[in-house]
Design a protein that fits this description.
The structure holds 2 protein chains of 2 kinds. By secondary structure, chain A is mainly β. Chain A is about 5% helix and about 40% strand. The mean pLDDT of chain A is about 95. The two termini of chain B are about 30 Å apart. The radius of gyration of chain B is 20 Å and the shape is globular. In chain B, a hairpin with a 3-residue loop joins β15 and β16. The mean pLDDT of chain B is about 90. Chain B is mostly beta strands. Chain B folds into 2 domains: about 140 residues, no CATH class; about 100 residues, Jelly Rolls, CATH 2.60.120. Classes of the chains: A mainly beta, B mainly beta. Chains A and B meet through β8, β9, β16, β17 and β18 of A and α1, α2, β6, β8 and β10 of B.
Chain lengths: ~260, ~270
């Protein structure tokens, strides 16, 4: 499990990493941890010992405090470990030292400017390198705001590959356009140029890359930022075979979109 | 493993229920989160109403006669009002709660959204349709809305009956909000009770090297909810810990600073 620091537009990225478990029964880890920064340069995973952290401490990391090359893809991962990592890795390390399930062990990851900040409780697991993403996006706002889609992707492999994301109106399936997203990166797509209206529910489909999609809103005067991720389709139901239902939902939509291509 | 760890693990293995949420008693029930409702001179609450059954079936254009039941509750969990709102044919309708529920909204603290399942059964097997929601909050001086998705599944609805589906254990436990409070800001934490019994809650604040100190305690009725406030100053990071019998006592957090604010689930 990794903690993402990402950067978008001219906003500063930040990460507050607390060495404090969310609950008092799952993980009682208290050893001093090495905090490694990990980023892909397209040829391998690069790693660098960023800091060490003691139990109970908080580490505040800013995109302005790390070298630009570490954020060339828009995203740098942070990983707590008691081990030492080689400076170049073929795949991401696997051993989790901070983990819990109720809830997941998370950090605060977000974006800020001089006036405002926005964040979410973040953790990120590597996604399959061959997967897809289908998401509905109800976050576009109008008046005094710029809207973006932010997609985070991490895979175990270091390759940075580009993929197409298609933008549809989910009701009439009119295609509003396409954009590009990348693996092991934070991809930012300006949404205002695609012509969605206040009552449209956009559907975004990436057929060859999974990702975590966010709506990012930036007030034109900079006084407020908004960031939230959408749920995967499986969250439309609870209990039973959610994975199976998620498969059916994706199949239903792909069939309809495919029929109209 | 130390003896104390063995005892701790045995204790929780015995007493902690395995699931955060219980399966609804009635087949065909629909599930909703208990969303924070903020409506006063400072706040507005908006909800993004989507065609959830259409999103499941893969046809978002089919909305004929589909409705969602909005129910608002006060801080004691008492139902104040409910209203059926038509699912929009266009895919998305932003519902402003104060407009829909004037004047009862002034006493409201939370709301739930239960979708009506269409006549033709959805192909979801043994699963239950759930509204995990996207709620947008705006302050009177903010230019835009801050969004947060549902925190956890709380209520099930079938044939006019609302069931709480949250679990709690016999032993109290801690939930530490993983966001460190920092900078000059006002933090407001919304905590709800998704269980069928009243739950005592203690709020503790911890700061580096100073241990944990109780800042507030209260009791939450079933479906009840409460906002507690913590001021943060430039004095290093601090944490909030919630001691209760909730299996997951996770709040929604509002961080207010300057003209803007941030909202997220803790």
């Amino acid at each position: 499990m990794f903690f993402p620091l990402f950067k978008a537009l001219d906003l500063e990225g930040f990460l507050d990493l607390g060495y404090i478990a969310a609950n008092n029964w799952e993980n009682r880890e208290s050893r001093i941890m090495n905090i490694y920064a990990l980023w892909s340069d397209g040829y391998c995973w690069r790693s660098k010992l960023f800091d060490v952290i003691k139990n109970g401490e908080v580490l505040h990391i800013s995109s302005t405090s790390i070298k630009p090359e570490m954020l060339k893809t828009g995203m740098c991962l942070f990983y707590p470990t008691v081990d030492e990592l080689a400076p170049r890795l073929d795949v991401l390390p696997k051993d989790p030292y901070w983990f819990s399930h109720v809830p997941e062990w998370r950090c605060t990851s977000g974006l800020m400017n001089e006036s405002a900040q926005t964040s979410y409780q973040a953790e990120i697991y590597p996604l399959p390198s061959k997967a897809s993403m289908l998401t509905f996006h109800p976050f576009i706002q109008f008046n005094n705001i710029d809207n973006y889609l932010l997609v985070l992707n991490v895979t175990n492999e270091f390759a940075i590959t580009s993929h197409e994301i298609e933008l549809f109106n989910s009701t009439n399936l009119r295609k509003h356009g396409t954009a590009t997203v990348k693996t092991n990166s934070a991809s930012v797509i300006p949404l205002d140029e695609y012509g969605f209206t206040a009552n449209d529910l956009p559907l975004f489909l990436s057929r060859k890359m999974a990702g975590i999609p966010f709506g990012l809103g930036v007030a034109k005067d900079g006084s407020m930022l908004s960031l939230e991720h959408t749920h995967p389709p499986a969250s439309l139901v609870l209990f039973g075979s959610r994975k199976e239902v998620q498969g059916k939902i994706k199949k239903n939509w792909l069939q309809r979109i495919g029929d109209l291509r | 493993m130390k003896k104390s760890d063995v005892i701790r693990k045995a204790k929780y293995a015995l007493w902690i229920p395995r699931k955060i949420t219980r399966k609804p008693a009635e087949k065909g029930a629909v599930i909703s989160d208990l969303f924070p409702l903020r409506s006063d001179e400072h706040w507005q609450t908006h909800f993004e109403l989507l065609n959830v059954s259409g999103l499941i079936s893969g046809d978002n254009s089919s909305t004929q006669d589909k409705k969602a039941r909005f129910v608002i509750f006060d801080s004691e969990g008492t139902k104040l009002a409910e209203k059926l709102i038509a699912i929009p044919p266009s895919g998305r309708r932003t519902i402003r709660l104060d407009k829909e529920f004037d004047p009862s909204v002034t006493a409201a603290s939370s709301f739930a959204v239960f979708h009506e399942i269409p006549d033709q059964a959805l192909d979801i097997g043994e699963s239950f349709l759930a509204e995990r929601g996207y709620t947008g909050y705006a302050r009177s001086d903010s230019q835009i809305r801050g969004y947060v998705h549902g925190n956890f599944d709380a209520l099930a609805y079938k044939d006019g009956k609302i069931q709480t589906i949250g679990n709690k254990g016999i032993l109290p436990r801690f939930y530490t909000v993983q966001h460190p409070l920092s900078g000059r800001a006002t933090y407001e934490f919304f905590l709800s009770n998704p269980t069928s019994r009243s739950v005592k809650v203690r709020i503790l604040k911890g700061q580096d090297g100073k241990g944990w100190a109780e800042v507030e305690r209260f009791k939450l009725s079933p479906r009840g909810s409460r906002i507690f406030m913590i001021e943060s100053r430039d004095e290093g990071a601090s944490f909030i810990r919630i001691r209760s019998r909730f299996y997951l006592g996770r709040p929604v957090v509002f961080r207010i600073a300057g003209r803007g604010f941030d909202v997220f689930h803790g």
